[in-house]
Amino acid sequence: MTAVEQAFRTERQRALATLIRLLGGDFDLAEDALQEAFAEAVAAWPVSGVPRNPRAWLVSTARHKGLDRLRRRSSFEEKRRMLAWTAPRFEPPDVSRLEGGYDGEMGDDRLRLIFTCCHPALAAEAQVALTLRTLCGLSTEEIARAFLVPVPTLAQRLVRAKQKIRMAGIPYRVPPPELLAERLDAVLCTLYLVFNEGYAATGGPALLRVELCTEAIRLARLLVELLPEETEARALLALMLLHHARRDARLDAAGELVLLEDQDRSLWDRGEIEEGLALVAECLRRGGARPYALQAAIAALHARAATAADTDWRQMAELYRLLLGIQPSPVVELNRAVAIAQAYGAEAGLQILDALEATGALPDYHLLPAARADLLRRLGHAAEAADAYRRALELAGNPAEQRFLTRRLADLEAELAAGRRS
Amino acid sequence: MEYLLMIYERESDWAALSEEARGAMYKEYYAFTEGIRQSGHYKGGNPLQPVSTATTVRVREGKTMTTDGPFAETREQLGGYYLVEAADLDEATGIAARIPGARMGSIEVRPIQKM
Known about the structure:
The complex is a heterodimer. By secondary structure, chain A is mainly α. Chain A has helices at residues 3-22, 27-48, 54-72, 76-85, 95-99, 103-117, 124-135, 140-146, 151-168, 177-199, 206-226, 231-244, 270-286, 291-304, 313-326, 330-344, 346-359, 367-378, 382-395, 399-418.
C-alpha cells in the first residue's frame, strides 16, 4: 500500500465525519468531495510528499470541492440550501485550526456522525447499515454479506437512509441534554446489534464476522472516550469485550460449538478480560442497576471464574433477578432459571422453565426446550429430555447449534437404547 | 424547513369521550396552538370534519369519478393538521409530541417539498 493510500485509509473516517458537518449534513456530497480530494492527493502527494497533517489537508481540499459542487448545482433549492448551511450555526471552523490539528473538533464530529446514523427516524436496519458504511468504512458488499442481504437491497437501504437524512432534515449533531439519554440508548442498541451479528455466526465468512465485533468495540471505545460520564456506554464496552474475549474457545477444531461451561479458558483473551473487568468495576462503583451494567456484571462473573465449577452461580441468579426487574423479558427469565439450576439444583431451575413454557411467551425460541432438555437429562429423565431436544432441533436455525443439539440427542438415544437410564 | 403534521386518530376513540373530556381536549388544543403561534412555529392548521363527510375524486382516462368516503378505509383517520416551521426534524417531532392527539393517536410528520 502506498503512503497516500495508507494516509487515506487512516484518516478517511474522521475526515468524512467532519466534512459531513462542513457541507451541511449531506452524506453523499461529503463522500463525493472526499473522493475528489483523494484523487488530487494521489496526484500531488507523491510529488510534494505526504502533508504533515494529512487529515486537515483532505478536509480542507474536500470542503472546497464540495462547495464548488454546490455552487455548480443550478437549482434554486440547492443555492438556498447552501446559503442556509453557511449561516452561523454551520459556520465552518477556521482552517488554520484544522491544520494545527484541533482534534477536539474532530472527535465531536465522529460523535455527531454516530448519533445521526442512529437517529430514531431511520429504520433500525438502516441505522446499522449506515453506521457500518460511514463510521467503519465497510463496503456495501461486505455489509450485505454479513447480514445475508442481496447487495442491491443493502445499497438501496443506504440510499434511502441518506435521502431521509437530507429531505426530512435530520440534524447533524450530538443531541441536546434532554434527548441524549434516549438517543444514546439507540446508539448502544445499534452497536450491540452489530456486535451480535459478528458474534452469533449466523452466516458469512468468518473474517468478516470478527471485523464486525472489532468495529463495534472500536465505536464503543470512542463513545466511552467522548462521553466519559455515560456509564451505560462503558458497560456495553465491557460486555462486548468480555464476550469477545471468549472467541477462540467457542468453536472446537472441527468447527463445532463449545458450551461456555466446556470451554478451554486458557484460550480466553486475558487482556480483554482484564479490561472488561476493570470497566465493570467502574460501572458498579458508579451505581445504578441499568441493563448493560447488569449484563456486563453477569459476563464478568463468568470471566472471573477459573473453571466453570468456580462460577458464582448464586450471585449470577441474583443479578438475573435484578435484570428481570428493570428489563422484564422471558429470555432473561430463561437465563435466570439456568443460573438457579446451577446454584440450587436442576429441579429448582426446571420449575421456573416449566412455568415459563406454560406462559407461551417463547413459542419459537429453541433455547427454552434446549435448557429444559439439559435439566431433564441431569435429573435422569432421559425420555423427556430426548423429546425436548427434538423440539429444540425443530426450532434451531444456526447450523452449529443444530449439530450440537443433534449430538446431545444422539447421546441420549444411545443411553435409552442401552437401557442404562429410566 | 416546513413540515406538515397530520393528526391520525380513531374517530371511535374521540366519540367515546365524555362531554367533559372532549371539552378538556379542546382547551388543550387551544393552548397548544396559541403556544406555537407565539413561538413562531405555526404556519397553519385546522381540525377536519369526520371521514363520513369525505368525498374522493379520481380522474381516469378523462373520466371523473366521485365517490363517497375517504380514499381508503384506515384504522385511524386523518382528523386535522398543523403546518409548522421548524429548524430540523427533531424540532418538528418535538412539536408533534405536544399535540394533544399524540397521546391517543399518531402524528405523521412530513417535510414540505419546496419547489
